[in-house]
Amino acid sequence: MNQSTDFDLLDPHANGVYFVGREDAEPIATGSVMASLHLTRIDLAGVADKAGLLRCMAAALRFPAYFGHNWDALEDCLSDLSWLPPGGYVLLFEHVDALQNAAGEDFDILLDILAEVTAEAAVGGLPWHVFFVLSDEAFERINDAAAS
Question: What pTM, to 2 d.p., does this model score?
Answer without folding.
Answer: 0.91
